[in-house]
Write a structure and sequence with these properties.
This protein is mostly helical. The chain has helices at residues 3-30, 37-64, 72-105, 114-125, 148-163, 165-172, 179-187, 200-224, 229-240, 258-271, 275-282, 286-290, 293-313, 330-345, 360-372, 385-403, 420-449, 457-468, 489-503, 507-510, 515-519; strands spanning 318-319, 325-326, 412-413, 416-417. It is built from 21 helices and four strands.
Length: 521
């Protein structure tokens, strides 16, 4: 194991995050006249975190010295540590701000707990969107309102984690060399991590340019819809990363704009598509991009689910996440049904309606979508549409083999052949994730049985699903209008681990628990 290489790149990660923290600290300091004293505390907290990160990063890079080459083991360790350590630094300004606030005002914020700060940061970087905040921005509710600079940093963690900090590294750090390909394949989400260009660093650059282009387009669109610049930036960061952090307690319903909601629907839909297809479109390969099997299945699932949910909630009472009571007219059913379907399948997690009050059929559809998720190569979480499609192809083949054992038929997804290793890997991955989800739900239920939360398995089970598949909201006490503040620290740490496992697609985290991995067998 080449620990020097891993530590040197980890130091580089800390330096990159420190620069971003420092920039937001400067922005916060420049806008002190617009906010109250808590914005001043936020600038101090961000500056402190930037200083700690810069010192730690510089020392780590210097001590590591010459880095050498990176193999598979180094790539796995670097990717895992990028999220684990990155979340620690990303959560530091939350904790530091809460510490300063209590010191100066005597008011204790939820972020005063290091576990809460780490949970929020991990939720941001993994684009999960689960939050421990009961009050985000409403000064009329009890608690401390989060300053704008910390809300911006909170949303920015989504944006950084969307295509992956590690993919950013591959794009900008020449020191990775040939090891960049290994790193990209480990971190890139989905069952097919091949690059869109022959050069892996060029691939990462292309993906990030596409990401930047979509980001700029949504910011402008939201601004035109009536959102101010600050909220346009924050909600765009959360949308394109399929994260779900909002600057409103009522999530997207807090924007009080149907136009903004439909813009977000469009960009959530785009964020859940394989980014490699956008490269094809740019190169003029429209027919090949539009003929992509996964794209067609993804859009087909979305259309059917939207129809089922819309019909299920039509002419029934709809409660928005802002608490408004609606009658469920055809227009309202389409507006809230489509938004929630797209939000859940892309694993964004934004909310406009309290779907915990919806009929069983609507809730069942949403839970199924939680498992499916977005496309391979997108910023979405879940099992991925490609894996689900391959699983059904494998099952269909096995059914045919039962009554036609002598037939030998090659399996294809579109025009691409699917070999035996890929089939086995797909089924193994899906089974492993389902088992981890079930184990996580049971463990959360056990942890909470020692408290007085009164959580049922409906809550803890969907909390496990929501964290492992990077969705955010679940059902029950973690529903669309609820939060994760009430969980015990043990539960929050477990859910943070589930988020990392889901974001890094299982193996980059699980291998760290294997003795053979460390022995180098």
């Amino acid at each position: 194991m080449n620990f020097r290489f891993v530590f040197r790149q980890m130091g580089s990660l800390l330096l990159v995050l420190s620069v971003l923290l420092a920039l937001i600290a400067v922005w916060s300091a420049l806008m002190l006249g617009l906010g109250d004293g808590k914005e001043k505390y936020a600038a101090e907290a961000l500056g402190f975190a930037a200083l700690i990160g810069a010192v730690a990063g510089f020392v780590t890079v210097r001590v590591a010295g010459a880095s050498g080459q990176m193999g598979r083991r180094e790539a796995l360790l670097l990717v895992a540590l990028s999220w684990i350590v990155g979340a620690a630094l990303s959560g530091l300004p939350f904790y530091a701000w809460a510490f300063i606030v209590e010191l100066q005002t005597g008011v204790r914020h939820a972020f005063y707990s290091p576990v809460n700060a780490y949970f929020e940061a991990m939720s941001g970087l993994t684009t999960t969107g689960a939050t421990i905040l009961e009050n985000i921005a409403d000064p009329n509710e009890p608690g401390v309102v989060l300053p704008r600079s910390l809300l911006l940093w909170r949303s920015l963690t989504h944006w950084l984690g969307g295509l992956g900090i590690v993919v950013l590294f591959v794009a900008v750090l020449p020191s990775l060399g040939a090891g960049g390909k290994r790193l990209y394949k480990v971190e890139a989400p989905g069952p097919r991590a091949e690059g869109v260009t022959p050069n892996i660093r060029e691939t990462a650059r292309v993906l990030w340019l596409i990401y930047l282009g979509l980001t700029a387009a949504e910011i402008v669109a939201l601004r035109i819809s009536g959102m101010d610049w600050f909220n346009s930036f924050c909600h765009t960061f959360a949308t394109l990363a399929t994260g779900g952090f909002s600057t409103h307690n009522a999530s997207m319903a807090g924007a009080n704009s149907a136009a903004a909601e439909w813009i977000v629907v469009v960009f959530m839909l785009l964020a859940g598509i394989n980014f490699g297809l956008y490269y094809m479109l740019i190169r003029g390969r429209w027919k090949k991009a539009l003929a992509d099997t996964e794209l067609r299945v993804y859009l087909g699932i979305m259309a059917v689910a939207a129809l089922l949910v819309t019909v299920a909630i039509y002419n029934r009472p709809i409660t928005t996440t802002a608490g408004e009571q609606l009658t469920g007219t055809a227009g309202e059913a389409v507006r809230y049904g489509v938004f929630q379907v797209v939000s859940i399948q892309t694993t964004t997690g934004f909310g406009t309606a309290d779907f915990d009050r919806w009929p069983f059929i609507a809730q069942a559809v949403l839970i199924c979508l939680m498992f499916i998720g977005g496309s391979a190569g997108s910023t979405g979480g879940g099992l991925k549409v490609m894996r689900i499609w391959m699983m059904f192809k494998v099952l269909a083949a096995e059914v045919e083999k039962a009554f036609r054992p002598n037939v030998v038929r090659s399996m294809k997804v579109g025009t691409a052949p699917v070999d035996a290793d890929l089939r086995l890997g797909t089924i193994g991955y899906i089974l492993s994730m389902v088992l981890i989800m079930a184990a996580g739900g049971v463990a959360l239920q056990v942890f909470e049985s020692f408290g007085d939360s009164g959580a049922t398995f409906r809550t803890t089970g969907t909390a496990s699903i929501a964290c492992l598949f990077n969705i955010g909201p679940g059902l029950g006490l973690v529903g669309a209008t609820e939060n994760y503040a009430w969980f015990t620290d043990a539960s929050k740490l477990l859910m943070s681990l589930l988020m990392a496992i889901g974001r890094l697609e299982l193996f980059a985290i699980i291998v760290l628990f294997s003795p053979r991995y460390w022995r180098g067998d």
